[in-house]
């Protein structure tokens, strides 16, 4: 099958849910990852990058200053030309951004999938018209997937086929952190204990909390990995024990996690975090790190309620929780419990389950029976009811 994936996230930005799923999709399908346009061209064109023989990233470059109908028409034309050039006929349209519906044109699809990984309309700088575009996508989609339980609860009444697939984990990859004994060069000069955060640093981060905890414990070192977006650098708390090391390649993350004592999830409590399901939660745990988080719904349930993550809200509570987490760092009993909890979680399993649902829709819509390997890679299908499970 051919999958055309319309995403608001650049492939090379942060390796997260879309990249995890579409990398696996491309094992047995051709995947076109279509990014949002860059407005820097004199004449519109498509930038194309082949990541593998089955996975291509496509970026439209448009002239700046276009009004919305002009931009839509040009993208529709570019998409049509691309489809013709590569003789793409049987397609599954996979949406991360509802705004891409506007230039679908007369494109016929075997299935339309909406993988709703966040409540994008609640983010700072959300585009005008996003809510109405999502409503239209709900009317158009054959299947809706959500990136967490709280988001599922919010969306489940808006479409008859909504399935919950929370953030998952590459356990073996992050598990390598447990065997690493030497620090990466950037951490060598930073004393312990080291408390780390990995992810996008934006309006979802509780910067006041970070500043207060760092000020309360000047000997603790806070290591922040990730790009700073949608907020000014001047908004970041600047204390001697807070270290901003910028974004890192995905392949290097276990080596950084290995040099930390605690993984942090210091998210603010606001509209933009109400439905988030942080992928770093299971990644910290797989790496062997105890973790401390603010009371984000999809962290509290199941991780906090299960005793896998310390939950704290105020600076004083956060300090106490970190102290407890540091003490549990090397507990074999804690790691055994974590491993039992994570053993059924994997991005491979998530994609297999998604793929079987997509295959059923494709067969139903197209009237042609597909082999198991056509979408899912040949794994025996499982009967799944709409709902939310962590495994």
Descriptive account of the structure:
With 391 residues, this protein is α/β, with parallel strands linked by helices. It folds into two domains: 195 residues, 3-Layer(aba) Sandwich (Rossmann fold); 172 residues, Glycogen Phosphorylase B (Rossmann fold, 3-Layer(aba) Sandwich). 33% of the residues lie in helices and 18% in strands. Helix 1 crosses helix 13 and helix 7 crosses helix 11. It is globular. The C terminus is likely disordered.
Task: Name a few traits of the molecule.
single chain, 391 residues, alpha/beta, Rossmann fold, 2 domains, nine-stranded mixed sheet, six-stranded parallel sheet, 15 strands, 33% helix, 18% strand, globular, disordered C terminus
Compose a concise summary of this entry.
By secondary structure, the chain is of the alpha/beta class. It has helices at residues 17-25, 68-85, 130-140, 149-155, 171-175, 185-188, 207-216, 253-257, 280-286, 297-304, 315-327, 332-342, 347-366; strands at 2-7, 30-35, 38-39, 45-50, 55-62, 91-95, 111-116, 143-146, 162-164, 194-198, 221-225, 242-246, 262-265, 291-293, 309-311.
CATH class of the largest domain: Alpha Beta
Order of helices and strands, N to C?
EHEEEEHEEHEHEHHEHEEHEHEHEHHH
Biggest beta-sheet profile? 9 strands, mixed
Looking at the overall shape, the CATH architecture of the largest domain is 3-Layer(aba) Sandwich
Radius of gyration: 22 Å
> How many distinct domains?
2
CATH homologous superfamily designation of the largest domain: Glycogen Phosphorylase B
Individual helix count: 13
Shape descriptor reads globular
Count all strands and give the number. Answer: 15
Structural class by secondary-structure content: alpha/beta
CATH topology of the largest domain: Rossmann fold
Query: Which whole number gives the mean pLDDT?
Result: 91
Strand content: 15-25%
Distance between the termini: 26 Å
């Amino acid at each position: 099958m051919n999958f055309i994936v319309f995403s608001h996230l650049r492939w090379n930005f942060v390796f997260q849910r879309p990249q995890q799923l579409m990398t696996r999709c491309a094992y047995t399908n051709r995947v076109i990852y279509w990014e949002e346009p860059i407005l820097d061209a004199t004449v519109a064109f498509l930038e194309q990058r082949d990541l593998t023989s089955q996975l291509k990233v496509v970026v439209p470059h448009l002239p700046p200053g276009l009004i919305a109908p002009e931009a839509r028409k040009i993208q529709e034309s570019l998409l049509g030309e691309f489809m013709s050039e590569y003789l793409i006929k049987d397609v599954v349209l996979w949406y991360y951004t509802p705004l891409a519906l506007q230039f679908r044109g007369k494109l016929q699809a075997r299935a339309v999938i909406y993988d709703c990984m966040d409540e994008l309309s609640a983010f700072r700088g959300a585009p005008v018209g996003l809510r109405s575009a999502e409503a239209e996508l709900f009317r158009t989609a054959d299947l809706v997937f959500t990136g967490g339980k709280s988001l599922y609860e919010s969306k489940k009444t808006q479409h008859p086929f909504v399935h919950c697939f929370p953030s998952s984990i590459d356990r073996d990859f992050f598990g390598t952190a447990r065997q690493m004994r030497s620090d990466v060069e950037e951490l060598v000069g930073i004393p312990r204990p080291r408390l780390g955060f990995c992810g996008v640093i934006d309006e979802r981060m509780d910067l006041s909390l970070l500043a207060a905890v760092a000020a309360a414990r000047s000997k603790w070192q806070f290591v922040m990995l990730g790009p700073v977006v949608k907020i000014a650098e001047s908004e970041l708390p600047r204390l001697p024990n807070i270290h901003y090391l910028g974004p890192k390649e995905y392949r290097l993350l276990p080596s950084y996690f290995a040099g930390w004592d605690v993984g942090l999830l210091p998210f603010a409590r606001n509209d933009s975090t109400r439905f988030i399901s942080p992928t770093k939660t299971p990644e910290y745990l797989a790496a062997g790190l105890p973790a401390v988080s603010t009371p984000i719904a999809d962290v509290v349930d199941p991780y906090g309620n299960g005793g896998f993550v310390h939950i704290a809200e105020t600076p004083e509570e956060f300090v106490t929780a970190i102290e407890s987490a540091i003490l549990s760092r090397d507990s074999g009993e804690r790691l055994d419990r974590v491993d039992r909890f994570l053993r059924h979680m994997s991005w491979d399993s998530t994609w297999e389950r998604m793929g079987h649902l997509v295959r059923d829709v494709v067969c139903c819509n197209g009237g042609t029976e597909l082999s198991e390997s056509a979408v899912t890679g040949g794994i025996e299908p499982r009967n799944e009811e709409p709902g939310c499970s962590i495994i």
